[in-house]
Amino acid sequence: MVDQLRPAPSHPAYPVRTRRLSLRPLTGRDIDALLTYRADAEVCRYLPFEPMTRTDIEQHLASRWAGTWLTDEGQELRLGVELAPTGELIGDVVLFWHSREHRGGEIGYVLHPGFQGHGYATEAARAVLSLGFEVLGLHRIVARIDERNEASAGIARRLGMRQESRLVHNEVFKGEWRTRLDFAMLADEWCPPGASRPGR
């Protein structure tokens, strides 16, 4: 018998803390910080959005990014990533709830280029996997990444996600054919931060 999705709490306790970071819902006070990387064409190059304006961010904060937890499929939870010692916003991560029946979700992450290369995105994404598996009770979480985005694919691998497919020129993305890598992890493959994987 297939497990049913467990009843989800109204929301996790925020901020969600990791060793070096704090994750919490975005607010209007984050607009200037969000612009420093979401308006950057190079940051957006392989991501599913164009460089954002202040108006774009204001509209997202009032709609798609307004939620503080997931209550049904089709929703997304967008959390700001702060450096714990300073409170500086350095990026954001997202958890999508795609299917209630199949308990499926997806993660994504974007980081200010000045803070890349220090493991922050991996640390933040691991916290989002924890929310998806341990709090929401998802069965399967995926990450869909442009093959040219080697740094992002590296994060998925460091998280322990399994590459399941390489879809060659499967879609036109920003005016050119894109090859997409699909990564996934199941709930019984998830290893909470600080725990050791069986047999390792």
What does this molecule look like?
With 200 residues, the protein is of the alpha+beta class. It has one domain (19-188): Aminopeptidase. 23% of the residues lie in helices and 32% in strands. It contains five helices and eight strands, in the order E-E-H-H-H-E-E-E-H-E-H-E-E. It has an eight-stranded mixed beta sheet, with helices on both faces. Strand 3 (75-83) and strand 4 (89-99) form a beta hairpin. The chain is globular and about 40 Å long. The two termini are 30 Å apart. The mean pLDDT is 93.
Give keywords:
23% helix; single chain; 8-stranded mixed β-sheet; Aminopeptidase; alpha+beta; globular
Summarize it.
The protein has 200 residues and is of the alpha+beta class. It is built from five helices and eight strands.
Please, what is the average pLDDT? 93
Could you list the spans in which at least 5 consecutive residues all have pLDDT below 50?
none
Radius of gyration: 16 Å
Count of DSSP strands: 8
Which CATH top level class fits? Alpha Beta
Structural category: alpha+beta
How much helix, percentage-wise, in residues?
Answer: 10-25%
Query: How would you sum up the major sheet?
Result: 8 strands, mixed
Termini distance?
A: 30 Å
Strand order of the largest sheet: 1-2-3-4-5-6-8-7
Q: Predict the CATH topology.
A: Aminopeptidase
Q: How many structural domains can be distinguished in the coordinates?
A: 1
Inertia-based shape: globular
Strand content: 25-35%
| Elements, N to C (H/E) | EEHHHEEEHEHEE
Number of helices: 5
Task: Give the second-level CATH assignment, the architecture.
Answer: 3-Layer(aba) Sandwich
